[in-house]
Design brief:
By secondary structure, the protein is α/β, with parallel strands linked by helices. Helices cover about 45% and strands about 20% of the residues. It folds into two domains: about 160 residues, Bordetella uptake gene, domain 1 (D-Maltodextrin-Binding Protein, domain 2, 3-Layer(aba) Sandwich); about 120 residues, D-Maltodextrin-Binding Protein, domain 2. Strand 1, helix 2 and strand 2 form a beta-alpha-beta unit.
């Protein structure tokens, strides 16, 4: 039987309305059970401590448990893939950052895409690194470092926490913008790299501020510059690299993403709750005390930020021919 056009259109509109009501009902009922915040790194790391900070807040706001689940391995890829493959229902989220985004560019054999298989939920923080040397070094400033590296190419050593790590790509951006050459020494993590800078086994390091702060204040490290666009309250006398290398800016970040096709109503609900947490005075101060900047955005703004970061570091990584 062939339906009249008007009756057919009414049926289509009715079906669409039912689907919309169903999505709305799911969002209103959310969460009805515990939510997993997956972290692709061990407990105690940067991703983990921020995930626990946000999980505690969300648990209080929603009256449901938000549970941090550590699934380390393969540079964060194991945990992240488990989120990508999860049902897009808002009950499995990833607390991730610049490392997971860069992995899409660094690894040739990934079976998922950060940019295409996830939905941005909320950003959490921005974190710059600090360029440090041992206090016994003859280098006291960024211009002196550039001059020394140009005078003796590859004679100076620069540490990183591994190929493709944040300190490594921050160095590669610096190298490309200054025309300097140093011998790159990759370590298996930031802790051993920092240990060898303190022991004068290696000369230069783009350290995380959280790891380096105590050593800087105690005079065991000399801070030459921070990698962000502005100086930070935690190190007010330390200049930015951009003050000597115009246009240089390198920041890390953390945020929350969900599997692609997660309902927009759930994403908006989570975004508002997380942003409210970032506006809480205690959470704000905790993030500042960690040497970071609170970074609250809408899902759309966060998505634009991710696209820009992907393009920026993709160029750096491909130019340096870094592969994992």
């Amino acid at each position: 039987m062939k339906l009249p056009r008007r009756q057919f259109l009414h049926l289509v509109a009715g079906a669409a309305a039912v689907a919309a009501l169903s999505r709305s009902a799911r969002a209103q009922a959310y969460p009805s059970r515990p939510v997993r915040l997956v972290v692709g790194f061990p407990a105690g790391g940067t991703n983990d401590i921020h995930a626990r900070l946000i999980a505690e807040w969300l648990s209080k706001q929603f009256g449901r448990s938000f549970i941090v689940e550590n699934r380390p391995g393969a540079g964060g890829n194991i945990g992240f893939e488990s989120v990508v493959r999860a049902a897009p229902d808002g009950y499995t989220l990833s607390v991730c950052g610049s490392t997971e985004l860069r992995n899409e560019i660094l690894y040739n054999d990934l079976k998922f895409s950060f940019m295409h298989d996830t939905a941005p939920v909320a950003s959490i923080m921005l974190a710059m690194n600090v360029l440090v040397v041992h206090p016994a070094s003859s280098v006291h400033s960024v211009p002196e470092l550039i001059a020394a590296a140009k005078a003796n190419p590859d004679a100076m050593t620069v540490a990183s926490s591994g190929l493709g790590s944040t300190p490594h790509v921050f160095w590669e951006l610096f190298r490309s913008m200054t025309g300097t050459r140093m011998l790159h020494v990759p370590y298996r993590g930031g802790a051993p790299a920092l240990t060898d800078v303190l022991g004068q086994q290696v000369q230069v390091f783009f350290a995380t501020i959280a790891d380096a702060m105590e050593h800087i204040k105690a005079g065991r490290l000399r801070a030459l510059a921070v990698t962000g666009a502005t100086r930070i309250p935690a190190l007010p006398d330390v200049p930015t690299i951009a003050e000597f290398v115009p246009g240089y800016e390198a920041i890390g970040w953390l945020g929350v993403v969900a599997p692609k096709e997660t309902p927009g109503g759930i994403i908006e609900m989570l975004n508002k709750a997380i942003n409210a947490g970032l506006d809480d005075s205690k959470i704000k101060q905790t993030i500042v005390d960690w040497g970071e900047t609170v970074f609250a955005t809408s899902p759309a703004e966060f998505g634009k930020f991710l696209a820009d970061e992907h393009e920026k570091w993709g160029k750096v990584i491909r130019a340096a021919n870094i592969k994992l």
